[in-house]
Task: structure prediction
Amino acid sequence: MTLDVDRLRADTPGCANVAHLNNAGAALPPRPVTEAQIDHLRLEAAIGGYEARNRAADKVDHAYDAIARLLNCQPDEVAIVENATRAWDMAFYALPFERGDRILTGQAEYASNYLPFLQVAHRTGAVIEAVPDDAFGQIDTAAIAATIADRSKGPVKLISVCHVPTNGGLVNPAAAVGRIAAEHGIPFLLDACQSAGQMPLDVKALGCTMLSVTGRKFLRGPRGTGFLYVRKDWAQRLEPPLIDLHSASWTGPDSYVLQPNTRRFENWECNIAAKIGLGVAVDYALDVGLDTIRKRVSALASGLRARLDDQPGLVVLDKGLAKAGIVTFLKVGEEPEDTKRRLTEAHINVSTTTRESTYLDMAERDIDTMVRASPHYYNTEEELDRLVAAL
Result:
């Protein structure tokens, strides 16, 4: 499929205002996503929130069907929640850890994941092991296998990896990690926040037991949306850390029954308009085509890296054998926040990422802050030229 970039930009009102290269933070939504939310909010105002939810039941249900198509799973293996952090937390905190249990992760693991590791380690005596990178800067799958094989340190109870870390363009070899996890019967939790919407995600091919996603990034969905995939056989084994009358049924004075599927990780109260908008955003990505999106984003990101490499005083910091649509860099002699400020004044949106977000990786590289540019398929070559000229 060939992208009609002009049509896609016309469908994205924000393109008239800014060169938006902060899609790894929050992408510009397409018009149908915004309109779907506004339409439902107007319906709520006209007839009432519960009544509007009942009338929109098909649209809400469709969001699960759309996500199932996106991930190649069943709709009842999907829970829609308020953000990716809550999705990831509901899966992680449902796992029982004991003293000596090992959690394997990568050097570029995100802070909102690593902090729960630390909390559980402090509470239970579980052990966190950050697997070293390979020669390309991605998680070393051979080291994962060797670490699992060394049973003298205790059992490995979880492998948790960021598919595309927040602080660079690398794509971790998630499918290879999934094969190792499956071979040893270890649950594999994949953070796909930065990969969903910019590349195909097939949970069967990836071999993940659980997967968390946000709506606002490359999927171009509403802020305040996220979803969790839990493979059906594992969903039935896990008790969520929080439950309510949606995730469980109160069956007697001292008894309850959890939902039999991944919906046990949801709660009753939610933003229905945002949930509908998320379904529309997933439809939009599927209609454009994830393979097509991947090729376009990869080409734009590669082109941006090449442009930056050609300029004296600009240093590209991305690692990895395979690279995605996140480009991190520094301008020599200028603080990253000052670089971001200057670009904002030129109506070019980028972001910065700090050591606190990926402490292990950035401390190892002795970097405190990076500038992060993240193009998407609706961006243009001209916008990349504007960025480099402004730098």
Summary: The radius of gyration is 21 Å. The chain is about 40% helix and 15% strand. The first strand starts at residue 19 and ends at 20. Residues 96 and 218 are 32 Å apart (CA to CA).
